[in-house]
Amino acid sequence: MHDTRVLCTDQVGLILEQPDERRPRELARVSNRPSIGKRRHNAEGMLRRQQAMTKNPSNREARATTIVKRKRSLTHVGGEVEAKGGSALVDLLVRALAVDAAPEPLGDAGEANDDSDRGDVHGFHTYPARMHPHTARSLVDTLTPKRGIVLDPFCGSGTVVAEASARGLAAHGSDLNPLAVQLARTKLQRYTPEELILLASEALRVAEFADERRKARAGATHRYGEEDVAIFDPHVLLELDSLRAAIGSSEAGPTIRRALSLVLSAIIVKVSRKKSDTSTQLEAKRIAAGFTAKLFRRKATELVERLTAYRERREGKARWRVELDDATRLETVRDRSVGLIVSSPPYAATYDYFSHHDMRLRWLELDARSFAKGELGARRHFERLSIDEARARWQHELGKLLWSLARVTAEQASVCLQIADSAVDGQPLFADEELRVATARSAFVWLAEASQARPHFHGPTNRAFDRSPRREHLFLLRRVG
Ligand SMILES: C[S@@+](CC[C@H](N)C(=O)[O-])C[C@H]1O[C@@H](n2cnc3c(N)ncnc32)[C@H](O)[C@@H]1O
Fold first, then answer.
1. In this structure, are residues 47 and 200 in contact, taking their beta carbons and an 8 Å threshold?
2. Probe residue for ligand 1, chosen from 118, 160, 176 as the CB with the greatest number of ligand atoms within 8 Å
3. pLDDT above 90: percentage of residues in the chain
4. Distance CA 56, CA 457 (A)
5. Fewer CB within a 10 Å sphere, N or C end of the chain?
6. For ligand 1, atom 27, which residue shows the shortest CA distance?
7. Contact assessment for residue 374 and residue 326, using Cβ atoms and an 8 Å cutoff
């Protein structure tokens, strides 16, 4: 027997290591780097300050107000939660969806820290439709498997894997987007204190190098195509070029180079003419000379602080992996090895991760050809379809996904999926209905679900939700047989 309730709560509220490891000749000429000793000294001071901050609660608060920009994240504006299923399971899902509304923005436009309402590593780099860390933590805690690993086959920025690993659970994340893989690995990597110092000192060196080249009016280290010329002011493009060249020539090792590349990725949209990550619109931005390198330095400092805080709350030494893999194949996951899946698949016809990340993928020299072909739910694959064709395509994609999840899950494994309604051809595509249809044909049984109304941002399809609001759903399934 299932009960159906409407609950009102007020809280519901890479890097490709650059294959080109050459150190550009002029880079060596212009560079007047501080000695390693001095850079280390600066970096050690920075790390000591961070450690003191995280240990002392009043300092922790001070740090939150200095490095953390408050910004209302509209995707988390809470609303009424409707839930169906056995009461204990419903409570579990409702608690996981109960996300506090983000605090008011402070309005410091131009700041790189656009995800700062999220704790430690989760706030480092923007990523469309990230799961809220509270949701990931709450699901991992309440559904902890007795045996088997925790898997997120659409790991994106790494929220679920980071939370599972923080709880001392063996965690495996995969994604077909190479940017996601590099980002999640950067967060999950177990850095020693020495490596964090090295990361901070290399970031200073890279930023200083870009500053020196700007002052010396040095030209670009290689030719840039029209897409970059159109999207960056010339002085910004030159600073980005210098930052990238210095990262590529860093002798600090692949892990540090990857982290530095992700810092570059974190600032690149901010300093471009692109309005936002998910928008194709361009707008004029007044970016002062030297600002790009300064932002890089600030964002790198923030990354070290966030990694330090994550390091301190991480329990045990459980193994973790993040791999490039298609969720409909999962070639990197062994049969029946998974005890729990917590994941947020792409929403049908809503995002186009390949296009959203086009600039970052190019700058980080990541090969995204399989992603371009295999991305599920991509808006570009749905936008010319009628609602019936879109449903058929989505059912086909969900079917392939559930088939591959069935192969890797152990008997009785729990699968919790977060997914939102979308719109095609002016018509709503209700994710709960579609997932229920696909589940009925799979090796999983439906146990419970909770749904919460969420705002819909896509102008052209707004009217699709005139009659019934767009909702975000949490589904709990169990592997049978
Ligand atoms: C909603 S996002 C996941 C966000 C993630 N939960 C987080 O907190 O950052 C969906 C993800 O699915 C990935 N994706 C799309 N098609 C895929 C496929 N065929 N295999 C694996 N991942 C895919 C996208 O790259 C994106 O990272």
1. yes
2. 176
3. 70
4. 40
5. N
6. 156
7. yes
Q: Is the C-beta atom of 344 inside 6 A of ligand 1? A: yes
CB contact at 8 A, 216 and 29: no
Residue with tokens 């390949």: 354
- Answer yes or no: is the C-beta of 175 below 6 A from any ligand 1 atom: yes
Handedness of CA 267, 269, 272, 276 (dihedral sign): negative
DSSP state of 84: E
The CATH 3.40.50.150 portion of the chain extends over 1-19+75-189+316-481
The CA 85 to ligand 1 mean position distance, Å, reads 27
Cβ atoms of 292 and 243 closer than 8 Å:
yes
Reported as type and span, the H/E element at residue 130 is none
- Expressed in angstroms, the distance from the first to the final Cα of the chain is 21
Ligand 1 nearest-atom number relative to CA 156: 27
Number of C-beta neighbours around residue 105 at 10 A:
13
Q: What is the DSSP letter of 102?
A: P
pLDDT of res. 219: 96
Mean pLDDT calculated for residue range 212-230: 96
Could you tell me the distance, in angstroms and rounded to a whole number, from the CA of residue 468 to the centre of ligand 1?
26
For ligand 1, is residue 154 a contact (CB within 6 Å)? yes
Residues 6+ apart with CB under 8 A from 371: 176, 177, 178, 353, 354
At 453, is the pLDDT very low, low, confident or very high (cuts 50, 70, 90)?
Answer: confident
Q: Output the CA torsion sign for 355, 356, 360, 365.
A: negative
Q: How confident is the model at residue 78 (pLDDT cuts 50, 70, 90)?
A: low
**C-beta 298 within 6 A of ligand 1:** no
Q: Does ligand 1 come within 6 angstroms of the Cβ of 176?
A: yes
Q: What angle do CA 139, 142, 147 make, to 5 degrees?
A: 100
Instruction: Answer yes or no: is the C-beta of 422 below 6 A from any ligand 1 atom.
Output: no
Residue whose Cα lies nearest atom 22 of ligand 1: it is 175
Question: Is the CB of residue 81 below 6 angstroms from any atom belonging to ligand 1?
Answer: no
Higher-pLDDT residue of 288 and 48 is 288
- Segments in 225-276 forming alpha helices (H): 226-231, 234-248, 254-268
Residue having the nearest C-alpha atom to atom 12 of ligand 1: 154
